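Researcher: We plan to redesign the surface later, but first we want a full-length starting point. C-alpha cells attached.
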C-alpha cells in the first residue's frame, strides 16, 4: 500500500469498532449469553461488577484507538500495545473460558479468528508505517 496512514487508519477504526461492539455483551449478560451460547446466563453481582469495570476499560481503549487515528504515524505504537497485552490477553481469557467449559470451542473459533486477523493487520500496519517513517527520515522528506 502506497500510503501507510491508510492502513493505520483502517487498523485504528477496525479496533475501535470491535471494541465498541464488545461493550454491549459486557454490560448485558443476556446479550453475552446469546453471543457465546451460554443458556440461561444469569451471573451474580460480582461478575456484573467486574464486567462494568471491563466495559469502562474497553470504552477507554476504543477512545484511545480513535485518538491514535488523529495522528496515525506518530501514535502507531498504540497498535503494538493493543496486540500485547490486550488482544493476546483476551485470546487467553477465551482459552480459559473454553477450558473450564463456560463457552464451547465452536463459539470461540470465530472470536479467535477475528483476533488473529486484527493482530496480523495491526502488526503489518505498524511495520509498514515504521518502514515508511524511517525512509522519510533518511531522505529528509516530511510525512
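Model: Full-length starting sequence:
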Amino acid at each position: 500500500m502506497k500510503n501507510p496512514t491508510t492502513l493505520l487508519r483502517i487498523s485504528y477504526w477496525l479496533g475501535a469498532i470491535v471494541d465498541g461492539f464488545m461493550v454491549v455483551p459486557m454490560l448485558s449478560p443476556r446479550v453475552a449469553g446469546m453471543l457465546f451460547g451460554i443458556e440461561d446466563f444469569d451471573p451474580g453481582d460480582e461478575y456484573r461488577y467486574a464486567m462494568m469495570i471491563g466495559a469502562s476499560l474497553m470504552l477507554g481503549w476504543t477512545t484511545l484507538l480513535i485518538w491514535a487515528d488523529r495522528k496515525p504515524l506518530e501514535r502507531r505504537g498504540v497498535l503494538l500495545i493493543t496486540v500485547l497485552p490486550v488482544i493476546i490477553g483476551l485470546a487467553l481469557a477465551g482459552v480459559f473460558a473454553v477450558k473450564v467449559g463456560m463457552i464451547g470451542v465452536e463459539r470461540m473459533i470465530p472470536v479467535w479468528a477475528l483476533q488473529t486477523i486484527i493482530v496480523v493487520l495491526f502488526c503489518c500496519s505498524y511495520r509498514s508505517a515504521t518502514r515508511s517513517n524511517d525512509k522519510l527520515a533518511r531522505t529528509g522528506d516530511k510525512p
